[in-house]
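Consider what follows.

. . .
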Amino acid sequence: MGNKLNIFIIFVLILGFLSCKKSETETQITQLNYTNVETPTFNADSAYSYVKAQCDFGPRTPMSKASQLCGDYLINFMKQYADTVYVQTFSSKLWDGTNVEGRNIIASFNPQASDRVVLAAHWDSRLWADEDTNEENHKKAIDGANDGASGVGVLMEIARVFRQKENSQGVDIIFFDLEDQGTPSWAESDVEDQSDWCLGSQHWSKTPHYPFYTANYGILLDMVGYKNLRFTKEGLSMHYAASIMNKVWDIAAAKGYSNIFINEKTYPIMDDHHWVNMYAKIPMIDIVQNDPTCSFFPFWHTMQDNMDNISKESLKIVGDVCLTTIFSNQ
């Protein structure tokens, strides 16, 4: 019996070893397949031009002329490519009680598809450069080239190329308004739950563009154009949508971007994905710049958040990863 038991133990160990080897092989095959996923070509020059076009209007602050003009530009652009464009107007209040009007812009592709993905970014820019090293700039509006316009530029290019390859996936691209108008650092506020941020996504998540809307998952892009690109596995994303985040990071690694999409879980942040997860119940991750030496990136909420710090290569990396994620489900 002793010999039989020993033989059985050896047999189990061999099976375990083979199982591990098989698992490793399957993982390698999965990652290899990501590199073979056929996607339409993401044009970095186009994405860069879309970021610049937004900034050329000036700061897209609440109810400003620049906001009106840029919003109209985004709506007309998306109408060229999407099956349907919804414009969701809403009223809200800033941290100090100021009443403001906002516009969420939703572009839908393949509306008949039941399997849907939400891609989102915010298109407003901050009313105050409250993190600027020059105190005289603290109440000036910023360009928001990275913080806002970069994510929108990537999604505009995705919208442009999406129809170049046959697909069955339904996609909804949302540009949230009034994301970046939370209490400035120089002010005092009674808001403790950070609900003075992300006003557009709060409204959409509670009242989507049509009743009972849902999607399989969502990806939020925020500050994705900086030249020293660095993303980590943000805490709220891992809490609500770990499987989606892990897949996106696996895709990035397979494409050679593991030095940018860092396999490290970091602290949760307040961003639009929080409200989409909480109220819309759609598992959404946040691809957001994370610089361990500062808040997000060196020019966050400063007058230097302009086109000088936007990288075409960074826009392309993010666009390629997003397109591969979408088309890997075909």
Notes: The first strand starts at residue 84 and ends at 93. Residues 2-36 form the longest helix (35 residues). The beta strands are 84-93, 99-109, 116-122, 170-176, 217-222, 231-234, 261-266, 284-288. Residues 41-327 form a domain with the Aminopeptidase fold (CATH 3.40.630.10).
